[in-house]
Structure formats: C-alpha cells, structure tokens
Amino acid sequence: MKKHKVDVMISKEEINNKVVELANEIEKDLKKSDNEVICIGLLKGSAIFMGDLIREINHPMKMDFMSVSSYGSSMETSGVVKILKDVDEDVEGKDLLIVEDIIDSGLTLEYVTKFLLNKGAASVKICTLLDKPYRRKADVPVDYVGFEIPNEFVVGYGIDYAELYRNLPYIGRVTLL
C-alpha cells in the first residue's frame, strides 16, 4: 500500500446531523405509501450509514442487503455489473429504499434499480451519503443526498481504501504522499 494521509473532510457531527435530516425526509415520504418497505444496503460500504439511518426512521420496514461488483479497470468501470448476493426478501409489490455510501458513475445503481424493478418492486428510491453528480455516466435519479463532494478519494464511515478505514467516524480525504 502506498504511503498516504487522511484528513477530515466531513466531521462525525456533520454526518450525524445529516443522517437525522435524511431520515426525517425519508420518513415523511414513507408515510405516503401503504406498501411494505424494504431498505436495501449495498455492501460493504453502506452498512454503517444504513444502520444509523434506519434507527432514525420511525416507520415499519424490513432490512436487506445486496452485494454487487463492477468489472473494469481501476480508473473506469466497464459498466458490467455482477450480483454477488441478491436480496433475501421478496420485493414484489414492495417500496424499496436502496442505501448507498457514495455514487460516482451511477452505472451500478442503474443496473441494480432495473434489476429490482424487474423483480416486481412497486417503487425504488435511492439514498446516498455522498454524491459526485458531475461524474455520472448513467441517468439514475437520486432521491436523497447527504453531501455532494468533489472528485477526491475518500474513506471512513463505511468507505474503504484496500479494506481499511471503514471504521473511521468521519469522511476523510486521502492524499498520497
């Protein structure tokens, strides 16, 4: 691993405040539907964010996870997505909330959204902690956005660098030394 340093970009307090804000917005929208709700986290990055988020939502919901992999070079995704772990719950007729840690190209979420709708989901909404909208290659609607960030490599709060730093309570900017 190359030598690097991590500087705080978004503090633990800013994240906590944003999680509560997003949860309130989501809860308000969920109350408009009579359908069962399933919150689906995309592993591994979303796990911490999703746990904090759903604890703040006062509305009945189930929780599930998917694991997906995009193949291509490390600099650019090929857009080919492979489902490594599908949801366990039956999504037919349900309202789904996909929780993601960071959205860049949007190609993975475009694929996952179509996949879930093809399985009969009534609706699919997307919530992300971090968003890089100017990097989009797919026109995927994002319903709830925590923070829009510049094109920098970040870690923390579930996001990793070589499987490290997921446990940081903040979002940090990685700088190679």
From TrEMBL:
Enzyme Commission designation: 2.4.2.8
Protein name, UniProt field: Hypoxanthine phosphoribosyltransferase
Lineage, uppermost ranks: Bacteria, Fusobacteriati, Fusobacteriota, Fusobacteriia, Fusobacteriales
Co-factor requirement: Mg(2+)
Domain of life: Bacteria
Keyword field contains Transmembrane: no
Catalytic activity reported: IMP + diphosphate = hypoxanthine + 5-phospho-alpha-D-ribose 1-diphosphate; GMP + diphosphate = guanine + 5-phospho-alpha-D-ribose 1-diphosphate
Record family assignment: Belongs to the purine/pyrimidine phosphoribosyltransferase family.
Organism annotation: Propionigenium maris DSM 9537
Keyword Magnesium: yes
Predominant subcellular localization, coarse grouping: cytoplasm
Keyword annotations from UniProtKB, A to Z: Cytoplasm, Glycosyltransferase, Magnesium, Metal-binding, Nucleotide-binding, Purine salvage, Transferase
GO BP term, pick one: GMP salvage
